[in-house]
Amino acid sequence: MSDPTTHALFTCRRLSPDDIPAAQRLSAAIGWPHRREEWRFSARTGIGFVAEMAGALVGTVVCWMFGSDRATLGMLLVAPEHRGKGIGEALFARALDELGERDITLYASDAARPLCEALGFEACGALDQMQGAAFRPPLVALPTNERLRPLGARDTAQLVALASRASGLDRSLVLPPLLDLADGIALDRDGELLGFSLFRRFGRGFIIGPVVAGDAPDGVHAKALIRHWLALNEGALIRIDAPHGHGLDAWLSGLGIVRTETVVKMRRLADATRRRETDIADGALHQYAVIMQSLA
């Protein structure tokens, strides 16, 4: 597909750094809290496209490639006054064309789900957006040979490996730029890195994610990695994007971090005739919280 692509009413082209202010205004107009910094991170780590009409930016989409066969897609936005004109469909098609023959994952709102299904995506899970002003969390006791410690410069390769194993996606191009924006804490057992969590500004407050840890009784590892940030930021607005199924909902809700929205996880296989399990995540590790919905 050529760049740019002209439609009857609008033009699609690649997102450029100069588009960030307009993209942020568009996301704010529909109630998304993303700051320019979030948009810059998305543009730096992914490939974006915008739709323009009469010189105004009226739509966006961003996609991310992980290795040669996997990708995620998100940040699909259309100005409310220009919906129903085929802009979202055109941007979606442009992103799919860019991604080629890859297994693609995305998170869809109820409004976007019909379009995703029409393009061959199927539901395969869900993600809860949890948010609140954290109360003082009780201490989470770790075993005597385990501790939390600050991340160091030499941890990056291990963090990438852990994040890739937990998500099933190669995080080598995404995690290092994220570390430039975030504070981090590591879970350590006698010098072995078992898990980690990152904390950064996001929207009107802060976000905890990713949170990567293995199975442990009562989720103690994940709780300790989350509790660390809550204890340091009492009263701050905290967001956690948590996949279904890891059992922290009741604990988080008891701390004042409650579910505010649920989105459906959907994916499309590169070859619809294949019958294989596409998740290659390490079953011994979990993402208790993701980086952000579009990168999950």
TrEMBL record:
Keywords: Membrane, Transmembrane, Transmembrane helix. It comes from Paraburkholderia xenovorans (strain LB400). This is Acetyltransferase. It comes from the Bacteria. SUPFAM superfamilies: Acyl-CoA N-acyltransferases (Nat) (SSF55729). Residues 10-142 form the N-acetyltransferase domain. GO terms for molecular function: acyltransferase activity, transferring groups other than amino-acyl groups. The chain crosses the membrane at residues 45-67.
